[in-house]
Write a structure and sequence with these properties.
Layout (H helix, E strand, L loop, with lengths): L7 E3 L2 E3 L3 E3 L14 H12 L4 E8 L11 E2 L6 H13 L3 E7 L27 E2 L13 E2 L2 H20 L4 E6 L4 H6 L14 H4 L1 H13 L6 E6 L10 H12 L5 E5 L17 H11 L2 E5 L5 H9 L5 E4 L1 H5 L3 H8 L25
Parallel strand pairs: 3-4, 3-13, 4-5, 4-6, 6-9, 7-8, 9-10, 10-11, 11-12, 12-13
Antiparallel strand pairs: 1-2
Helix pairs in contact: 1-2, 3-6, 7-8
Bound molecules: flavin mononucleotide (FMN).
C-alpha cells in the first residue's frame, strides 16, 4: 500500500491522494481579480492529479494584499473567475482550496520582479496595518497599529471572504497565519508589542487568530474542512516558538480546525533558518504526535520517495509541495508511476502515460 495515494477524508470532503499544491502567489491580478493565468496555473496542477490545490494567498481586503498585484476575495465581482477555476479543478477530481490572507505590516510591497520593499502611494501603494507600529525591515512601511474597530473589521473581512469562498465553490479554506503576515504578527512577541487584550500573554497574542477562526467557522459549513497555516517557529530567541505552536494547535483542534499546515519563519528578516530537504517536517511531526491534530508537512519536499516516507513514518498526514509543482505540474502522475501505483491519466493524455516497464523519463 502506498500511503501517498491513499484517499484522505476531511469532514465531508475526500482528497483522492495526499499530495497538496502549496499556496503560491502569482502576482498576476489587477484589483484582486483572478485571470486566465490563474485558471491555467491551478488547472494544470489539477490535470497533473493533485488531491488538493490551495490557491495563493487571497486578500480579504485591499489593504491586506502583499502587493498591488495580489489575488483578492473582498468583493462579489471577484467570484466569477474564481467559480470558473473551482469548477475546472473539480472536473479533474481535485479539491479546490483557497488561502485567505491579510498581509499586515508586510502589505504594499512590490511584486518580486517589479522591485523591493514598500510601494509608495504615488505608485498605487498604501499604509500597512499591524499589531504595533513596528516595520518588518527598513525598506518596508511602518504599519499603523490596529485599534478596536480596525480589529473588528479584520475579523469581519475574513468572515465575508469565507462566505464568498463558499459561493465560489471552494471546498477547503486555509487561513494564513504564517510567514510574518497579520495573524502571525499578532502571535509573535517580536512584532506584537500591544498592551491591550491582543498583546502580551500567550492567551492575548492568539486571541485575534481564535476570533478569526470562530468567525470563519460561523459561516463555513460543518461538512467542509478548515486548515490553518502557521509558522511553527520564528527561529529567533524571544519569538513565537514550537512549544507555543503545540499549545495553539491543541486549542484550534477543539475550535473546528481540521489540520495545521506547518511552515516556519517569515517574521524576522534574515532569521537563521537551517534550510535543507524536509527541514520543516519535524514540526508537523511534533504537532501531530503531541496534539493528535492532522498535519501537513511543507518545505523542500521534492521526490515521491521523500513524500511517501514522511507519511509512512507518521510525521504528517499530507505533504504540500510548492516549487516542485512549478517545475513539474504533473508530479502526482509521475509519483504514482515511480511508486508503482495505478493512477488514471486524463483521457486526453492517455497515450503519453508511461507503461510499467518504461522509465518515466527526464523531468
Ligand atoms: C512563488 C511562490 C509563492 C508563494 N506564495 C505563498 C502564498 O501565497 N502563501 C503561502 O502561505 N506560502 C507561499 N509560498 C510558500 C510555499 O507555499 C511553501 O511553503 C514554500 O515554498 C516551501 O515549499 P517548497 O520547498 O515546496 O517550495 C510561496 C512560495 C513560492 C515559491
Amino acid at each position: 500500500m502506498v500511503t501517498l495515494f491513499e484517499p484522505l477524508a476531511l469532514r465531508g470532503v475526500t482528497l483522492k491522494n495526499r499530495i497538496v499544491v502549496s499556496p503560491m502567489c502569482q502576482y498576476s491580478s489587477v484589483d484582486g481579480f483572478a485571470t486566465d493565468w490563474h485558471l491555467v496555473h491551478l488547472g494544470s496542477r489539477a490535470v497533473g492529479g493533485a488531491g488538493l490545490i490551495i490557491s495563493e494567498a487571497a486578500a480579504v481586503s485591499p489593504e491586506g494584499r502583499i502587493s498591488p498585484d495580489d489575488l483578492g476575495i473582498w468583493k462579489d465581482e471577484h467570484l466569477h473567475m474564481l467559480t470558473r477555476i473551482t469548477a475546472f479543478l473539480k472536473s479533474q477530481g481535485s479539491v479546490p482550496g483557497i488561502q485567505l490572507a491579510h498581509a499586515g505590516r508586510k502589505a504594499s510591497t512590490y511584486s518580486p520582479w517589479k522591485g523591493e520593499g514598500h510601494v509608495p502611494e504615488s505608485e498605487g501603494g498604501w499604509q500597512p496595518v499591524g499589531p504595533s507600529a513596528l516595520a518588518f525591515a527598513p525598506t518596508y512601511g511602518t504599519p499603523h497599529a490596529l485599534d478596536g474597530p480596525g480589529l473588528q473589521k479584520v475579523i469581519a473581512d475574513f468572515r465575508a471572504a469565507a462566505e464568498r469562498a463558499l459561493a465560489a465553490g471552494f471546498e477547503v479554506i486555509e487561513l494564513h497565519a504564517a510567514h510574518g503576515y497579520l495573524l502571525h504578527e499578532f502571535l509573535s512577541p517580536l512584532s506584537n508589542h500591544r498592551t491591550d487584550e491582543y498583546g502580551g500573554t500567550f492567551e492575548n497574542r492568539i486571541r485575534l487568530l481564535l476570533e478569526v477562526v470562530a468567525a470563519t467557522r460561523e459561516v463555513w459549513p460543518a461538512e467542509l474542512p478548515l486548515i490553518v497555516r502557521i509558522s511553527v517557529t520564528d527561529w529567533t530567541e524571544g519569538g513565537w516558538n514550537a512549544d507555543e505552536s503545540v499549545q495553539l494547535a491543541a486549542m484550534l483542534k477543539v475550535r473546528g480546525v481540521d489540520m495545521i499546515d506547518c511552515s516556519t519563519g517569515g517574521n524576522v528578516p534574515k532569521a537563521p533558518i537551517p534550510v535543507g530537504p524536509g527541514y520543516q517536517v519535524q514540526f508537523a511531526e511534533r504537532i501531530k504526535q503531541e496534539t493528535g491534530m492532522l498535519t501537513g508537512a511543507v518545505g523542500l519536499i521534492t521526490t515521491p520517495a521523500e513524500a511517501e516516507a514522511i507519511l509512512t513514518n507518521g510525521q504528517a498526514d499530507v505533504v504540500l509541495l510548492a516549487r516542485e509543482f512549478l517545475r513539474e505540474p504533473y508530479f502526482p502522475l509521475f509519483a504514482a508511476h515511480d511508486l508503482g501505483v495505478e493512477m488514471p491519466w486524463p483521457v486526453q493524455y492517455e497515450r503519453a502515460k508511461p507503461r510499467a516497464h518504461v522509465a518515466a523519463g527526464p523531468r
